[in-house]
Amino acid sequence: MVSREHKRAALYEKLQLLRSITNSHALNQTSIIVDASKYIEELKQKVERLNQDIANATSSHDQNQLPVVTVETLDKGFLINVFSEKSCPGLLVSVLEAFEELGLNVLEARVSCEESFRLQAVGGENEEDGEGINAHAIKQAVAVAIKNWSETTERD
């Protein structure tokens, strides 16, 4: 009997953890699992899109190709990815300046600048501005910053 109760309690805890990870509002087991399945499918689609963006960036033989930018809307903010197959000295500063001009606060970021350039940042709107920033505006601002950076580095 005790073993069965422990198993039920453990299963309940795991379902609640699954429910919180997938942001499910479901109350019964079946609905929680269905929501988790949908969440996994969404993650697979995001991975496929990112892999496709990276493949598009790496398939070109053009040495002067600009970094690829993707922006996704999150519950409270945005996930911004910038990727280039080559190292891009000074690009990080340009991208961060673009964030600042938009009033976008960097909440979390991971950057690699050694052999390639990778930036993954989670940004949230500055509360004081009150302007609604959307993913398209962020992507456009980052693209402009990259273009300006590229033109500056070509002149040097």
Topology of helices and strands:
Elements: H1 2-21, H2 29-59, E1 68-74, E2 77-84, H3 91-102, E3 104-112, E4 117-125, H4 135-155
Antiparallel strand pairs: 1-2, 2-4, 3-4
Helix pairs in contact: 1-2, 3-4
Summarize this structure briefly:
The protein has 4 helices and 4 strands. By secondary structure, the protein is of the alpha+beta class. A 4-stranded antiparallel sheet has the order 1-2-4-3, with helices on both faces.
Describe the structure using short key phrases:
alpha+beta, 156 residues, elongated, 54% helix, 4 strands
Describe the structure in your own words.
It is a single chain. By secondary structure, the protein is α+β, with helices and mostly antiparallel strands. The chain folds into 2 domains: 2-44, no CATH class; 60-155, ACT domain (Alpha-Beta Plaits). 54% of the residues lie in helices and 21% in strands. It contains 4 helices and 4 strands; from the N terminus they run ααββαββα. It has a 4-stranded antiparallel β-sheet with strand order 1-2-4-3, sandwiched between helices. A hairpin with a 4-residue loop joins strand 3 (104-112) and strand 4. Helix 3 (91-102) packs antiparallel against helix 4. The longest helix has 31 residues, at 29-59. The radius of gyration is 21 Å and the shape is elongated. The termini are far apart. The relative contact order is 0.12.
